[in-house]
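@channel sequence for tomorrow's demo:
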Amino acid sequence: MKKLYCVFVLCAGVSLLMSCGNKSNSQPEQQDTFLAFDESINHGVIEMDELHITDSVQMKNHTYVYDILRVPDSTLAKVKEQESQTMYSDNHVELKILKDGAAFFQKTFTKNTFGQYLDEGFKANGVLEGFVFDDVTDGGLRFATSVSYPQSDMYIPLTVIIATDGTMTVSRETVLEEPAEEED
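structure tokens (generated this afternoon):
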């Protein structure tokens, strides 16, 4: 659990540092940041940039290749930021997994996929933001995902596990608040 929290915090820090640097037109295929809200404006609606991650892992003498594609989705309901009234596009995430070169798992996720794990505020005002491979566990391939308020550090962390038989389980993670440091 603490590892998952650290992954989110680390990615947010790296995203912040990367957003301050020069941007180039070329992007590597593997990107470790998923909380960056690199944006573009499409008809007055702010959209996150497309994110594509492909890699392979070993689990129980099998090679699994996962392909994650996060795309702004104009068919989903727009999200309005409460104070500024800025409109944001929600995203969908396509996850494809091959096992030893053969199709194994495929699903398109939206914020509604995780609806039972979200409170009303995140259902109405959150976007599906992060989705990355986390670890190989005894239960299967673990992916960390998040639904967040746009351009904020407020999010609901979720875990998606794809078992060796191709079944999927989802759970909501608990983020423990770090105690504030006292100033001297």
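heads up for whoever presents: The chain is about 15% helix and 45% strand.
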